Amino acid sequence: MLQVIVFAETIAFNNENQQQLLNSQRYFIFWQNNKCQLCADKLQQLEQFMSDKNETIVSVNCDDNKQFCDDTGVAGFPGVAVMRLNQVVAQIDFKSLHQLTQFYADTLKKFIDESNTFETMSDALTAYADNDFYILIRGKKYVQQAQFFEATIQVAYVPSPKKSQLFLIYKQLKLEYDPKLFESVVDFVFYFGSPWFRKYNIENISSSPNANNISMYVFLREVNHLQDIKMLTVFFEALQLNQIRISNESVYADLMQLSSFKFGYVDTQENVNLIDPFHFTRHMRGPTFVNVFHSQNCYLFRQTNPNLNHSQIQFVVNKNGSGVISADFYIPGIVDELVSFIQQVNNAGSCIPMQKGTDIEGDGYIPLKDGMITLILRLIDEIVFDFGNKTWDLRLIYIAGSLVVLMVGIVAIGLKLN
């Protein structure tokens, strides 16, 4: 297991030596103006680590090698397709890391062999919409900023490589071709479809047959911020352990203010599943917050305040001691309350009512039995979301059945409370 170190790879392919640069055994660190303090602190450790693994690093000071940096597109990214990878690695073994880097190299080779460089992201999407996976790349003008390691990473996991889905994500991530964004938030997006999981024999994110209805966005900001939080097991562990972990509450709250992305938060002491059989996010509209936490048979399903512009239905379901809370949100103030509440649940290991007078108000969590709540939620799913697809006789059966189950549920709750 590694401590927190910097692992950087830059591969460019708009020069004559593009095949040489694609060698997955070589990792490039580009830096400029002697301002790469991160390099000074970590480069020796990284070089030793790679040497022990028979890997090599090429460290390039762009002040002394300006032509090389210009040729590879690092200095300014002059309208060419360049992949730049910058990740801080926390407690991840080299085998997993190598799998990812090999994937990057393989995909880039596919990208180069089958494509021309793209002037716009729309061109890239059009070319890769029907492939097993694609890489969407956008750069910053680091010559002006002189800080190569201020990188943004976005990872998107979507069901299948269909053009409509890709363009939907393209729109959701606000990647419209806008010169103002060129120096703003987006560096690149990876698409990991199920073919990638099969290729590398990595278990899919969930054993649920509906797992592919879930989208994950992992947003990691500039390195200085990442050094402080030291929690970057997020996406890597999700691939192998079927879970997402963000163990720093302040980071979690900060990230959640970016309302276009999905995140998971979980107590690092617990081992919970991100996805449950109800695949709630299939029904969400707009940016969706999915939160995973541990509790003891605690459930909530209720209508949220419509004035808050959230989902009409919000509920938590227990599955083997884990829970999922789903809500659309656009108001950052909700984040702190949710984090605080979830922390209380995790610490106490039992049901704790929500506090009144907050952005999210409710009567609290009601303990119920698994079978009852499962049936109720299945009926909610069928009636609310699939009702329009049913024939009238089935609709009447569902309505009658739901009324019976709800009445039994009310009686069960009454008996439990008494």
From TrEMBL:
<keyword id="KW-0812">Transmembrane</keyword>
<dbReference type="InterPro" id="IPR036249">
    <property type="entry name" value="Thioredoxin-like_sf"/>
</dbReference>
<keyword id="KW-0472">Membrane</keyword>
<feature type="transmembrane region" description="Helical">
    <location>
        <begin position="396"/>
        <end position="415"/>
    </location>
</feature>
<protein>
    <submittedName>
        <fullName>Thioredoxin-like superfamily</fullName>
    </submittedName>
</protein>
<keyword id="KW-1133">Transmembrane helix</keyword>
